[in-house]
TrEMBL record, chains A, D:
UniProt superkingdom: Bacteria
Xref: PROSITE patterns: COA_TRANSF_1
Organism: Exiguobacterium undae
Listed name of the protein: Succinyl-CoA--3-ketoacid-CoA transferase
A Pfam entry, by short name: CoA_trans
SMART domains per UniProt: CoA_trans
Keyword tags: Transferase
TrEMBL record, chains B, C:
InterPro entries: 3-oxoacid_CoA-transf_B, CoA_trans_fam_I, CoA_transf_AS, NagB/RpiA_transferase-like
Pfam assignment, any one: CoA_trans
Protein name: Probable succinyl-CoA:3-ketoacid coenzyme A transferase subunit B
Keywords: Transferase
Organism: Exiguobacterium sibiricum (strain DSM 17290 / CCUG 55495 / CIP 109462 / JCM 13490 / 255-15)
Length: 233, 220, 220, 233
């Protein structure tokens, strides 16, 4: 319920994100990222963030802008290759990075939200990822123990929300967003469209309202495309 | 004359059978998609959350909310579905994807694969590769047989950090095709024009030769 | 005169605050749903996959595909959502449900709960109770204070096999309300008409008495 | 793809289910159960089944009919209380039962389908369920190790399928079905309606086609109701 979930401004919705907080952030590349919440964080000026997100944006868009303003202390990602600012800060030791296989990252976030503190996966066995991790055999095969992730805040981008916080995502902009929505102590969702309660088909809701603490409507989404590939008619 | 890339792509195409669910890695493997004959009905999975990748969009169809794992704009074919990243990797890790075709930097004779980092160079990340090689029912690696210095990328053991340990089922290079079996690495095809001896000369790995060794068809 | 059941339900109702997501166990707890005042907007979760349980259906609305965890036909309120059982328990285990109100057989002074099996009797199963008591943010148990032989069900330690260890936040009986704190079990309310001494006389568990002890309001 | 997924008869679709097989079966109570596939199994006569399913039907409907014909050796369930045949066979030692907390059962099935051999859960710590299970501390709290479940066959009931095997479920008949669909070496799905490819919105598919090996259309669903509760107008 909590009709009071709806916020009027991104400034207000992100105001209590504190220095040193862990943020879990939705999106894949620049697709489905909470671009307005990220921009608000740059304005807000919070520092020393640990950010769990599959990628780190590009130099001047998405999470990349928080790198430029030196607000991120550590990234937990599967791929950070699209970002020169990242590369500079990484090589100079300004930023820490914890590289996590994409499937493991997705499962760790889902596990965190689902109250599962740890699980075993075959991914990474025999690779540098296995270093320092507990291993265990099941049916004669070796698996790594990986831990669930819960953030102080989760930043989510959805297509539509109803006023209770039920969410629907669009096409591949869904990606990490539904898992991220479950894994924040406070989950902040920006949406393109806010609809009345009852307008979403209960059979087709991707994220039930229980996971959502704050909803804000964004306007003028840039939705930048990283690789515009087209075919001839 | 066919380029190395053409040879690899044409041979890799034979791996894709009618009815398969397939994940094609970023880069060269993605190019295979366009070459799949229309009479082979396959569903391509993109690990960012799409099963049933269609062709690139027409200019007016471009949609920022519809990309593949290489962050390229795509379309969805009829019968496609979208899902979240946990579901996508549940599908991969759980053995529901029939085939993954990925690029490689090094493959070792025991089936080890290295394709994600070079010590001393900026490490960009493994993305979904480690999950794919441990999850897909069948893992086929495609790469050039030798590096730009003429050194074999088909190794007795990998020198680069691994992506997966004993995960490769088949390796396709521009010179040969190998299978990885309980009895070790087996040469099953050579590129037309090359002999088994030619392959031995450019391959660091130890391998046996399949009795049914055939000439590898060049895409002509 | 109010029955034990009325007393328990009326007191339990006070636990349900506006805006909460609540899971009500099968049996007596389910009856609480009908008593929630209209001005308290809550969403009731049913662990078989519904958030936002509505009232029982009218005769013509009955739908075999829409039941609650007690297998009763229900409706969905506006703003409800359906989901699968893994998602449902992710929601529960992950601490997203504000409150679970469940029945009990025994509660011990350390917050242990037994409510699923009696040795020697046919064990029907724990259903979702073990997940709920370990997952919900707040666990409130409702039960009669004594059994039919007049023996205390509020124990120094449970004699029945546990459903959960140190999981109860609050216990509501027909005679008293207790909280379970780091400093032990605390009597916070007595039923109107009963004194602290009356409660001690029917309670096996050791407890302290809250300084702010109030009389427990009877539903009148 | 595999256009050949569509079967004409339940007999054919279940013909290769073998004696001693492990079946993972969808449904909650009698809601969303694959009632036609279960009936076909009774006819087919397969024996010594291990059945993983939240409940075991009632005496004369759902999985209960396989108890009556003594085809089940072991049940893995969270609640079996609605069934007198079960009770008799259990007390006489004819049938084994492994009681698993409902959330743990759901997660084990999901894990099996997702290639996760084991995970930790707080559920059951300090109870009889914990006996013989490995325990581990995370952040000072104790958790139990539980293992993923994969069946030889999964029996699923969906509302609609398209001809590729994309599935949509209806209301609370979804329950265990989407997880079960992922956890069979062979997944057999019965549906009320088969639609053409392209008729289901790709954004609203509950189970992607990749999990489904066989599809059969059922007719004249009984959909028995266990507790018909109504209110006055």
């Amino acid at each position: 319920m909590q009709q009071g979930k709806i916020y009027d401004s991104f400034t207000e919705a992100t105001a209590d994100i504190f220095d040193g907080a862990t943020l879990v952030v939705g999106g894949f590349g620049l697709c489905g990222i909470p671009e307005k919440s990220i921009a608000a964080l740059q304005e807000q000026g919070v520092k020393e963030l640990t950010v769990v997100s599959n990628n780190c944006g590009v130099d001047d868009f998405g999470l990349g802008i928080l790198l430029q303003s030196r607000q991120i202390k550590k990234m937990v990602s599967s791929y950070v290759g699209e970002n020169k600012t990242f590369e500079q800060q990484y090589l100079s030791g300004e930023i820490e990075v914890d590289l996590v296989p994409q499937g493991t990252l997705a499962e760790r976030i889902r596990a965190g939200g689902a109250g599962i503190p740890g699980f075993y996966t075959p991914t990474g066995v025999g690779t540098p990822i296995a270093e320092g991790k507990e291993q265990k055999q099941f049916d004669g095969k070796t698996y790594l123990l990986e831990e669930g992730i819960v953030g102080d805040f989760a930043l989510v981008k959805a297509w539509k929300a109803d006023k209770l916080g039920n969410l629907v995502f669009r096409k591949t902009s869904r990606n990490f967003n539904p898992l991220v929505a479950t894994a924040g102590k406070v989950t902040i969702v920006e949406v393109e469209e806010l609809v009345e309660v009852g307008e979403l088909d209960p059979n087709e809701i991707h994220t039930p309202a229980v996971y959502v603490q704050r909803i804000i409507v964004g306007t003028d989404y840039e939705k930048r495309i990283e690789r515009r590939t087209v075919r001839e008619a | 004359m066919a380029t190395s890339r053409d040879i690899i792509i044409n041979r890799a195409l034979q791996e894709i059978e009618d009815g398969m669910y397939v994940n094609l890695g970023i880069g060269i493997p993605t190019l295979i998609a366009n070459a799949i004959p229309n009479d082979r009905h396959v569903m391509l999975q993109s690990e960012n959350g799409l099963l049933g990748i269609g062709p690139y969009p027409l200019e007016h169809e471009v949609d920022a909310d519809e990309i593949n794992a290489g962050k390229e704009t795509v379309t969805a074919q009829k019968g496609a579905s979208y899902f979240d990243s946990a579901e996508s990797f549940a599908m991969i890790r759980g053995g529901h994807i029939d085939l993954a075709i990925l690029g490689g930097m090094e493959v070792a004779e025991n089936g080890d694969l290295a394709n994600w980092m070079i010590p001393g160079k900026m490490v960009k990340g493994m993305g979904g590769a480690m999950d794919l090689v441990n999850g897909a029912k069948r893992v086929v690696i495609i790469m050039e047989h030798v590096n730009k210095y003429g050194e074999s990328k088909v190794k007795s053991s990998c020198t680069l950090p691994l992506t997966g340990s004993q995960v490769v089922h088949r390796l396709i290079t521009d010179k040969a095709v190998f299978d990885f079996t309980d009895a070790g690495m087996v040469l099953i095809e050579t590129l037309a024009g090359l002999t088994v001896e030619d392959i031995r000369a450019v391959t660091e790995a130890n391998f046996t030769v399949s009795p049914e060794l055939e000439r590898m068809p060049v895409g002509e």
